[in-house]
Records
---
Amino acid sequence: MTILALAIGLLVAAPYLAHRLRRRQADERAFPPAHLVPAALPKARRRSALEDKALFSVRTAAVIALALLGATPLVRCSRLSLARGGASVAIVLVLDDSMSMRAKDSGRSRFERAREGAREILASAREGDAVAVVMAGTPPRIALAPTSDIDAAKSAVDAAVESDRATDLDGAIAMAEGLLQKQPHVDKRAIIFSDRADGRVDAPVLATGIRVWFAMPDLAKDAADCALVEATRVGALVRTRVQCNHASAFSGREIVIMAGGKKIASSLGPPGSSAGDAPLAMEPTLQLTPEAAADPHDLVAQLTGSDAIASDDLAAVVTQGSPGALAVVSYGRDEAVATGGPPVIEQALAALKTGVPATPLPVVPDRSEDLAPFAGLIVDDPPGLTPEERRAMGTFLDNGGLVLLALGPRAASPPLGASLLPALTQPVRWGQTTVTGIDPKNTGFFGESGLSLENVEARGRTTLADDDQKAFDVRATWKDGAPLLLKRAVGRGEVWVVTLPLSADESDFPLRPAFLTLLDAFAAETISRASPQRTEVGLPWLLRGKKVEGKGPVADADPTKEGPPLTLVKDGPMSRIVPGLVGAYVFTIDGKPERRVVAPAPREVDFRPRKVPDAALDAAEGNGHPKMDVSWVLALVLLALFAAELGMRAFFRSRSESNIPPVSVR
């Protein structure tokens, strides 16, 4: 029926033939001797050429419009829409803003196509529908809470932008389920716009507790891509790591190191590494020349050529450094330990398996460079600190370090010229005590393990000066109110003070579960304060400082360009940000610059789609009957063309009559 209706368009030949076959009178010209000739019927006729082209065009367009008018009600459009049972619905639009959605198909990125599909779904929403928007990049975020304001939903979709995050479909669907459970609607569903490339192709079928529809399954297409996952400088060497989903994606490309826009080193990769469709992973090492090694510019590693995603072909080079460790200085190593072996602190840290490496040191370092590789410092009963050690510890605290200072008899009798600055400004006193146990009302820091300190016994304890005690936040006290555990901020760092030494010879505190709680909390705080130079995209950063400013990378991840200012979320004494783009970030924390690098998630290079239930790919789940009736528009166009034809015929007729001479002699 559609073909028969469109066949009406063949009638465009009718106006053409009518214009070609139309005859007109011969041209009349005045000839004076003609009055001597008897009148005769005119026989001079000629076929007219194709004239009045404007009128011909109008008539042709009218025939075509008539054909389209007949066929339009029979044609289905490709727009997405909601399938309804008659009542209002509650939907959650899940937009995948991960790195794999940057891949382009037919000149448009997958994310742009997904956003357009979300707009089409919103165009079919009605009054009473509830709509929410969730972003599926790691970590999943709620871009818009459920609302009946469709315009707000359209604005949220329009405001969504691409990122370099990894894909977290499980988390996004769980978040969508939580949003839908609170809605009173009977019809609830999540509509997902994703290529399903979450790097978990071997995982079980995606489990969903709600109705889920992957609205655009054609987004799940294969594409060739390589990612420069890592670039680390070790002396004059730069170690890189490249991952490709197809080895052929590396064909004809090379890895180059740039400094100040100039190429200073390059590598083609291992021979034979760019053949076939199997995945490829390699770690080429590039040698820098002495001149390049001394170049002050930040180095940038780059993959030449092009592939599906451009943002993962650049990587800022970071200098190899420590991932953050604990330094342990125990001045009571010569004391007997009931359990034997190393000091109790080292044994406890090894038993906790916090993941933070602990390095024993004989004394507190007197150079800040020696403390730079560490994020935390535990000092047990120091005999004071020398001026050099105080300067080193002060710099360590100013840079955000964490210090646990356990005070005992040695701390109370320092040698001449030694003190406990910058932790304490006044000397401390050590004396015997008859108080056993801590106040059970002030055991919140230790949790349940605080019950083990209700009868803790000690030969003595340390007493702080009143001025120092007022400067600290007391976290645990003895039964008589004297402090046991205190904390205070120094610079960007923090000092924890325990008024007992961490030695089993002076008290049984190291043998109580609360001691392990103390070390575990200190290690956890150390990890949170560590400043990794390179992290994976999507992992949060906590920045400690009174004034924190930062600038992120540009959209194309070029580390040589300065990006826009960052919006930081204040969280108490910390500033929090979750980077969503790969590249170099520059922060200014209390006037001191700090540079961090975000690397892409390797699993985003795997474009193979995640397995989902067959019902989630069923177009009937959301398409319904997607017709777009434009017959009324075509009817108006046809009416306008008809009116135009009438006007043009009247115009041409009046013009032809005005051109006839008033006297004509044949």
Note: The mean pLDDT is 84.
---
Amino acid sequence: MYNILIGGAAGQGIDTTVAILEKALKKSGYYVFTVRDFMSRVRGGHNFSMLRFGAEEITSHNDKLDGMIALNDETVSLHKDKLKAKGFILCDSSLNAEGTQVIKLDMDQMAKDLGNIRVSGSIAVGAVLKLFGESLEHISDIMKTSVKEQYLEVNLKALQTGYDSVTAKFTHIDGNFKDWMLLSGSKALAMGAIAAGLNFYSAYPMSPSTAVMEFLASKSNETGIVVEQAEDEIAAINMALGASYAGARAMTGTSGGGFCLKVEALGFSGIAEIPLVAVDVQRPGPATGLPTRTEQSDLKFVISAAQGEFPRMVIALRNHKDAFYQTIRAFHLAEKYQIPVILLSDQFLGDSTATVEPFDLSGIEVAVPADAKEIKGEYLRYLITEDGISPRLIPGKSKHFVSADSDEHDEYGFITESASVRKDMMDKRMRKLKKLEEELLEPEFLGAKGCTDLLLGWGSTYGPLAEAVKLLNEKEPGKYGALIFGDIYPLPVKKLTEFSAIANNIINVEQNATGQLAELIREKTGIACTSHILKYDGREISGEEIALEIWKGGLI
């Protein structure tokens, strides 16, 4: 398994360089996993991506580098200590880097000689592919998808120039992933929405959720999806609710600050029983916080967002594959139970790229509104039922009047202030939770089933925890296991109760400062964690970091 870093200032073409390398390495058969670290600015600063690749599935990044493409001196000074003994630094000859690990090429001059100063990144890509013993067999097809046609020839020449300028340092590893897909978490989520039959998406641009809207907009002509860039967050969620009421499968997306503005309308979804899928791609707060960084600090907020009480579901997306399938499921549950379903992603998952097995579309199930033909006699939109689910018709599709109201209402949907009707309607809505609990997915367990040390996590900590448990059990076989929650509210408790009963230590791992999952678990079950590993500096935790914290006994 290899690991390289590509770093420089914003505007130096890091994203394009990484995208070409990812595609080339995946086409070579490697499993590819890339994380991105970038500042909130258009030019300057220090940005970098870490690209890890190998012949087996990879779930986490790692700071130990086999190589580095340094586009400026700052990249060298900040990351040179992460290089392995056989690692290399590839950079332009104008940089100040010195030492036996440094490979200097006059890339800027090479690019000028080729007639385009901007192709220096392609020179670097060619050199890196050679250093890792790769061929250029597929590079022409890859470049056709990455650069404009008029610049294709010069970029291919640049790649060959870089390739011919170095000698191989590493050996190619055979992998079987060339026919798999390469997706970011946000693209996987968006593809899940498309597969679920999304008709309408509304959002206001907010990092890091904007990638979802951008992908859906790029596919809107092919799919027939209406993608609306709303004037603000409040308009975005109300547009989605209006579309859903009218019969469209609708979704809205944002990040934490934007979700704050959506909460009153979220309550409208709850009381009016209008299905809605809402995405929160988390970033550090409060307020503006760190707009381009990652955190898991919105959990308790979204569980209780909006005044009053109403049923909702919160699903934390664990990885790229999970993002696809859970998004489909979110649409199904939102429609079936006529509730808001909130999907929690974060910048780490949303912006990271992974190799993903082609999706299986054969088992997709998404509930549909009621059939008007099944309504016998008078139609009551909010009919009191045993399971709390009333027949939902689409206005204009039948002779029946379909009401919706943000005030409390009776079975017809007419406003009421009756104390008894209020209680009956509240009870009706809340009964949905009891039925919803039957559909909850238990957290995924990884590691040794007889573990004495149980790690807990949720959402995107899945990958780092998977690697941590593997590392820990290699050193102390059979001792460690992990439960990683996807369905998180209502909280599934069967596996948690089972494994906590045999564990001597319960170690909570989260990307927030207060241990929000641990607090939720204690509130709902009385089970208390014995220690915590919490990271909240805006950077994603790695499997190795988790293992090191446990090995050194530095638990909080």
Note: The chain has a mean pLDDT of 95.
---
Amino acid sequence: MHYGWFMAMRQGDEKPKVTRELLLRVLNYAKPYWWHIAGMLVTILVSTGLSLLTPLIFRNMIDVVLPAKDTQRLIWLGLGLLFIPALSGGINVLQRRLNSTVGEGVIYDLRSSLFSRLQRMSLRFFTNTKTGELMSRLNSDVVGAQNAISNTIVNIVTNLIEAVALLVVMISLEWRLTIASILILPLFILAAQRIGTVLRDIAREGMDLNAQMNAHMNETLNIGGALLVKLFGRAREEDKRFRERAANVRDIGIKRAVIGSGFFVIFGLVSSVGTALVYGMGGYFVITDIFTVGTIVAFGSYLGQLYGALQGLVSAPVDFSTSMVSFERVFEIIDLPQDIVEKENAVELKDVRGELQFDNVTFNYKVDESILLKDVKRYGSMDNVKAVLSGGNGDASTIKRRVERTASDSAEADPASQARDVALSGISFTARPGELIALVGPSGAGKTTVTYLIPRLYDPSDGIIRIDGHNLKNVTLESLSHSIGMVTQETYLFHDTIRTNLIYAKPEATQDEIESAAQAANIHNFIVDLPEGYDTIVGERGYRLSGGEKQRIALARVILKNPRILVLDEATSSLDSESESLIQDALKRVMAGRTSIVIAHRLSTILAADLILVMDRGQIVERGTHGELLEQDGLYAQLYETQFKRERVV
């Protein structure tokens, strides 16, 4: 008995439904490897047959060779005792190779299918799904699923063949001893169930305690957490907190080890009952000359193998059910419907002029639960640790992120509140090729939502968005992506070199093209002054760079992409004046000749706009040029007085 059996039991209370359809789908993943599986079955049969020979050799040696003092035959039997383990070892290596080929192949197939599916899910899916849950599906659940094919099924077949073969041989030797040896099986099952339940509960508690410790490390040892600890001088308190959690993990580990050892003792005692019965009856049969000493020695060897095989068969249903739970979780992602779907006869955008039209567009962030993953209680998962510092755990179903929260009651209490049920309502405007459209309005008015609809990160709930007269839903996603360049307020850079982050927009870009884009974004001189130049690692999320440097790299990336339509959040409030000036200069070059939709934060951009759209509570409440809007003396005039008037226009 090993701890893996108890670990499998921790999910036993999920009671998975092992249906015929599920089994057929699972076996479908084994089809590409059926030659390997057939080879494994052959090796199992051969290995089982070899395991039956050694006790028979001992029997012959004791009952025949030694009494006859047959030296020659003794040598041959001795060589046989050397040859059988050597041959068994070679067969086991071959079986392991076949097994790992199947297992790793299934992992590869499942992960590839999952990742491909996730790449095609909309932003709505990711804003409502925890990253940790996706990682668990791609790692823990995939590994658990492949166990059903490469380990669980193989072990069931192996133990079944071995148990049947052993029982046949043992019955042929002495049927009465065989019956006596299996009489203790109910005792073994009872002991396994009772102590297995205790160990399962301890394992769960230990995994949750370990999750709390890991979550604490994850929060305090990343760059943001480490900075916060140092700024507030909390190193001593965090050290104490970690020691407490590490001590809990230590104590539960000791408890688990002690109880686990107690189980092995009980199992040994139960097994010894069967052994005592066999040797007691066998000894009596030897004394009464019913069978020989060699027979009882062989029978004792078979007995240990039989108990091991029966033990495996007892735990097999739990192992198999656990694997089925993992398969169900994997299939859940593969079967998720897509809410951003490319039509079969979608049109490829070519020679894009850049005309963009919103026609009575309405949108809300209400989530269709059918496109989301079911909440799963994962023992030992850091995602289940709700309060990392205080150590409290929370139900995963209560931890859901929303891009925009609706709170109509608050809106009624506060007329100035942007909280609402519908994110956008009746949005209509046209941006002609080469025009600059500026979006202004209070925070939460829906400006970012408008920009997210243009590259189909979301689809409108109602209304139509067109590019060059084509409904976005009727064009290919790839050509749409190539036609639109987007720079968000929160710039994301991969933990890689500056060059790799830049060519993400155009993998085949030459060095000259990269440098030209960087020069247009006013970042080239900074890059070449770095010790590693374009091969400098930017750090996680670009943390080694300043906010202005990250934004200019993001602009260079868009320039390298060379889209006809530019969508950007001109967020410069957190930048120093020098970085802001460099970015504004770069923006003029980026927007030149392109249709640009800009969430404007600077008066200079607003004055340059061909059309200003003033948004409030998800609607366009005013539109026009700077002068026209000031004359209306509405919301724009208020924003001008509070946000833009004091800005010095360069």
Note: Residues 18-173+316-336 form a domain with the ABC transporter transmembrane region fold fold (CATH 1.20.1560.10).
---
Amino acid sequence: MIIEVLVELSTRSVDKTFDYLVPPQFVDKIQLGIRVLVPFGMQKLEGFVLKIKNLNNSKYQIDELKEILDVVDEEVILNEELLKLGKKISEMTLSTLISSYQVMLPEALKARKKIKINKKIDIYMVLNKNIEIPILKNENQQKIVDLLKRKKRILKQELNKISSSSVKTLMKNNILLEEQEENYRLKQEYVKKEKYPLTKLQKKIVNEVLESKDQSKTFLLHGVTGSGKTEVYMELIEEALKNGKSSIVLVPEISLTEQIVSRFRSRFLENIAILHSRLSSGEKYDEWRKIARHEVKIVIGARSAIFAPLENLGMIIIDEEHTSSYKQEQTPKYSAIDVAKLRSEYHSCPLILGSATPTLESYARAKKNVYHLLEMKERVNQKPLPEVTIIDMNQEEKRKNSHFSKILLEEIKNRLEKHEQSILLLNRRGYASFVSCKNCGYVEKCPNCDITLTYHKTSGMIRCHYCGYAKKLLPTCPECHEEAMTSLGIGTEKIEEELMEVFPSAQILRMDLDTTTKKGSHERMIKSFQNHEYDILLGTQMIAKGLDFKEVTLVGVINADTSLNIPDFRSSETTFQLLSQVAGRSGRGEKEGKVFIQTYNKDHYAIELSRTHDYNSFYEEEMKIRHELNYPPYYYLTSIKILSSDYEIARVESNKIGEYLKNNLKNSTILGPSIASIFRINNIYRFQLIIKYKKEEKLYDVLSLLIEHYQSNSKVKLDIDFNPIHI
């Protein structure tokens, strides 16, 4: 038998497979999609089996082929669907095939050398039923036997606590036998709850999906915050289960996983696997195999969970579909929504995209009937959406009320007195945005990136949030040598400090990237806030969507302009989505909620329309601007970044590429080359070209030739992104 193997070659950017001979002892183990260990030059590499051939199908003679060294897997890693899906992703993103397969898999199952995760095995002791057990003279031995007569099976480590020597003796005398059982690392916890009866509107939505003639249709579920979208999701999944089918549910933030998994487990018990980046390598390995072995039928997770090896899919749900985290920023730059569409077509199952603030592209597709639009315009039980007040901080600054307006402080105090909870959003972590000298104006910048360093007071460090560079903040300016260094701008750490000063008795929980680095921190924080152990939750955008706290009656946005000032064509859309989503955290229980948004741009349409929860008016306003500027959804975009550690090489090559594109893409507009939004990251200079087009049949061929031209150039790297989230 001859097999065609795809190995990972870190020094190559092209796909190439190699033929290997399978020795007789491995023939029965070979299947498509498993990993094998092969000799490659002086190395030993792992690779995926993509084809099984006989000698007539190979261009090589037997004596020209090397033999594989081992078969790594007992079970198939990449099933037939995933093998096809990887090829499609490679074509769509112009990425290598190996990178498209690797991105699907947990670390333990990637084709890489020296990565091995052991199964977690529990060893139980049982009595040997095939012998008659005598009365034992040794007291501990008899105690162990008596325990096992009552309990049938006990963990060996528990019996060792009585007497490890007695356990050994009993095993030696064949009285005790070992039984091994694999124990998955991620523990399942659930409390069975009765499901809520659906409202008339929820039933109507469910029926529209189930009765659709086109089973692989994409539905856009546009429902206001608190309208009961999750109940719709669970009902649809229950229907899929009744038909023997499985389901995938994607959530955009790890912080959302705890609450949604808790709700799903109360309904579907242990029939759930979880996949997200905060799991350990062992936990991901266990969850993946649990799915592949058909032990569960529901997978909940972040972006990469879209690759879960479920068979017979009956429902795919992407919650908060507008979130940018569904787009992979590293190669291959796939969109989880695009992958979901491919899987929906493969399995002929519905794809549900849910959001209170859909992307303009999704809503435009729904308007054109490319997607089927489902709308839920009211909260469950006709509860009102929270009242939103816009606070003009230009006026507040005259009163010198620090970073809090007078009214917001009064409202927080009021909630504390009523024993209600508040959520405060500031989408910037750290203590201060930058540090500078009051005397000479010197600003601390990252030596590797064109970005100012952010001050983190708790550690006393100034850090780069791009390359990770950090150093201790010193009071003396390195330029003028005066003790005049001061921090400017605000982050969540500084706001937390101010809150503690104003409300010393309040229990404050800060949730951002700095406080959620430890394993399980998201879950612990959300659970403790849900149990009302804290009065105020302060955080970045990770607290803005999907979370459901019944006692939260106040939401405050410290600075609504943070995302508005980003130089990106989506900044208004991002701002409206963020404000609308965080506003939706207020008043979800029995008590009415209020929202206060602090801004220096109170008349901006994104901020003004978030006050009235008016998505449709925002959509119309933003679409006019997109149409005028030829931006999505009217035009497609492709970004090409030219990267090099040598500034001059990057500049020259970006000009060459710009000319090449202009000469070969006649139906497109080429913008640039220009300096990327952050010119230097980790000592790599970055130039950018943007391709705008409605229809460009030659695009993939032209870009493929460009990639081929630069693949052997070690001094220049191309970074191509189709439909980028940010430019």
Note: The chain has five domains: 2-109, 121-182, 200-381, 387-429+491-626, 636-722.
